[in-house]
Amino acid sequence: MMLTLHGMTWDHPRGYDPLVACAQQWKARTQVDIVWHRRSLQDFESFPVQELARQFDLIVIDHPHVGQITQEHCLAPLDEPQRQADLNAIARDAVGASLQSYQWDGRIWALPIDAATQVQAWIPGRLAHPLRDWDDVMTLAKQGAVACPLRPPHSLMVLYTLSAHLGGLTCVTGPELFSGDAPHEAYERLRELAALVPADNFGMDPIAVFEEAATPQSRVACVPLIYGYVNYAIEGFREQRIAFADMPVIAGRAPRGSALGGTGIAVSALREHAVQAADFAYWVAGETTQRTLYTAAGGQAGHGKAWEDTAVNAATGDFYRATRATLDGAWVRPRHNGYMAFQHAASVRLNQALAAGETSAGLLHDLNRLFRDSLTVSA
User: Fold this and answer.
1) From 88, 144, 255, 332, which residue has the greatest number of CB atoms within 10 Å?
2) pLDDT band at 44, cuts 50/70/90?
3) Domains of the chain, residue spans
């Protein structure tokens, strides 16, 4: 008898198409049908996971939710003893901190199926090669050829990346998130960039920026910090192919500190078929599926063997090899219960400061106050 499960993911070919393709093969193998539903990227970044867990057996999440979902007991831990061998295999080839970002209170709450961080996007034909240095970014921005997604929470992600790159985000557990001189320099660099990119970037998320940059008439030649989207690196996905590279660095530093993104597949603890849902989660996160069916259907792999695979890289203009160093050096955001509300409030406050041209002192004081307040939610 056919069993039907329901899953929720985000509304982009990268987030939806590979899971549909995998579900079709899974149905043929197991007689378990998984119907995938989707939400907008903005909804995906903010919608309460607990509500989704009441309606869906499988949920694609991002790691900053794990503190909240642990408090709410709405997801099933995936590191059960009978799964240890499969979990060990995934852990051996996890890309950067992708797996550990879903670990909280000693348990694993999701498996990485999509690894991403803020990297550089550049347009072949408008640039001869990616930019290596932040000063080069600013030179190009003054020519009107740079874009940057600044719609919340992405402005905050840029501040995170620059601050961590400069060594200013050393303690995600508080009491202050932004400490020392580095976040002040990071904000001033962001403020300078935000004043030079098109004003509509304040209303654009990464997808909107990619769609604009991929049009033949666009002036955008480089997006210095943006979450990588493998689809745009594939010839023919859009009229103009977009290439990707490691993040541009400041003063010769290594490409470290980028704010980790990506997604994991989680299993509801509030539905009755958690075992069957976990079976699919482990299969779709495993090496074979990730390296073949998942990437072939337009997914952005979360498994290291897929990132290293010659055929996978050939099909994506070396997307994975070209950005791996940045991914491996990515910074993991705070994940405590209360963080998600902070992320929204901090992003809004940051955009107010950028729009008004505020200096860093008042802004960072407010961000640290908001962060301290967020820590009391789980205290």
Assistant:
1) 255
2) low
3) 3-115+261-316, 118-259+336-375
Q: Which residues contact 358 (CB under 8 A, 6 or more apart)?
A: 352
3-state secondary structure of 253: coil
| Count of other CB atoms within 10 angstroms of residue 6 | 18
Q: Which residues of 253-286 are buried (b: 16+ CB within 10 A; e: fewer)?
A: eebbbbbbbbbbbbbbebbebbebbbbbbbbbbb
**Across 117-140, average pLDDT:** 98
Cα distances (angstroms) measured from residue 355 to each of 142, 162, 363: 18, 19, 12
348 burial via Cβ count (<10 Å: 0-12, 13-18, 19+) = middle
CA distance 41 to 187: 25
Using one digit for the tens of pLDDT, what is the confidence trace for 64-74? 999 998 889 99
What is the pLDDT, as a whole number, of residue 46? 63
Give tens-digit pLDDT for 196-211: 999 999 999 999 999 9
CATH superfamily of 3-115+261-316: Periplasmic binding protein-like II (3.40.190.10)
DSSP β-ladder status, 263-267 and 111-114: antiparallel
Q: What is the pLDDT of residue 45?
A: 61
Beta bridge partners of 60: 265
Question: Quick one: what percent of the chain has pLDDT higher than 70?
Answer: 98
Average pLDDT, the chain: 95
What are the φ and ψ backbone dihedral angles of 355, each rounded to 5 degrees?
A: -65, -35
Contact 59, 7 (CB under 8 A): yes
* pLDDT of 8 above 70: yes
Cis ω for the linkage preceding 153 (within 30 of 0): yes
CA atoms of 302 and 76, how far apart (whole Å): 20
Sequence letter at residue 379:
A
* pTM score of the predicted model: 0.94
